[in-house]
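In the laboratory, one determines a bound structure by crystallizing the protein with its ligand and collecting diffraction data. In a computational setting the workflow is compressed into a single prediction: the sequence and the ligand go in, and a structural description comes out. We illustrate the idea with adenosine monophosphate.
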Amino acid sequence: MITVTQATQILREHCTDWGTEQVPLHQATGRVLAEKLFADTDLPPFHRVMMDGIAIRWEDLNAYDSFKIVGVCSAGLQQQFSPKEGECVEIMTGAALPESFDTVVPYEHIQIANDIAKIESRPTKQFQNIHLKGTDFKEGAELALQNKKINAAIIGIAASIGKQTLLVKKLPRIIIISTGDELVSIDKTPLPGQIRQSNAWALLSLLQTIGLNAEIAHLPDELEAVISQLDLHQKNNDIILMSGGVSKGKFDYIARALEQLNCKTLFHRIAQKPGKPMFFGKLNDTFVFGFPGNPVSTLVCACKYFIPWLQTNLGIARVTPQATLQSDVTIKSNLTFFLPVIIQLKEGNIHAHPAPNNGSGDFASLAVMDAWLEIPENSKEIKKGFIGHLIPLNPLQHQYTPY
Ligand code: AMP
Ligand code: MG
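The predicted complex, in structure-token form:
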């Protein structure tokens, strides 16, 4: 049995990359950008006026505080004027500043009567209210967006440089497999001794919260069937997520079946509660995650190990948040313990309150919890004020620091 730290390290050592693909701009949100973007012109591409008002020559302010309006300059054109001293044009936000002017005074700072604009509040510097050509980016400059999760800002920038498709990291093909003869599909009424296979749906939901999808399948507790179907699924998927069948029970065939298929076991069993029997291996090029079947175990293992690994592979840097425990807790296990908690944000800190549960460790705590607080091994009595790693049930969408 390995420790939680060792398991995390092994996952880190087995990160991978599923390549890239082009997607249309309208389907790129949430994906990870895999190409460099360059400014195709100076940005802004011309001296862009930032306020509605009048355009004047800075040096004219030495002699004039009223300007004769000799034209109107609107956005979308590159207009030219030949003004005499003391003349101005009205100009609109977004217009290209004509060469003959260098300063914009907004309408709020002038009074207009009989085509004369009287300046009531003088501009303090030349080029005021003008976004000068090339001050955001010079033509050809790299826009430093590679490996970022594509959001509205990136889509806007891509559109502004004329990108109709974007190269993004490919998503892995994932299958979620439930195992166990006691499980029936969710549209069936369970007979005595049966339950509905809920874990597959919970795992699917977890994937969907970070923009991925998966197929769902079921395997019986029967060695030959497990072997043949895993062999088949392995050929069509980059990741197999399994729940159930990895413990020490007589009918827990997953490890045995994987062994017969020459799957490389990367780890099996972690010193943690819940989720001790978790399995991680590689079957040819397919990564196999075997989560223990208990619904809490499946979810905590997926959130603690699988989601961070997946996000790392997709190039999304992430941070493990920390939270402060808000009451004393007695831990009845010597293993690393994942305590279900309810989260509250207080003055910029994450507060973790132990979630009420009826001791079954199943749905009762899942229904109210927001996250698990990771309690180190051999903790026994853990005091209010303890600060530990938080494993959110909703995977973080905005991540900053590398794994
Ligand atoms: P196992 O890991 O196969 O020993 O299963 C542990 C417990 O989790 C058993 O009570 C199973 O019935 C239950 N279980 C296994 N798979 C699922 C599933 N897909 N949905 C709900 N419960 C499950
Ligand atoms: Mg089972």
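The radius of gyration is 31 Å. Keep in mind that any predicted model is a hypothesis to be tested, not a measurement.
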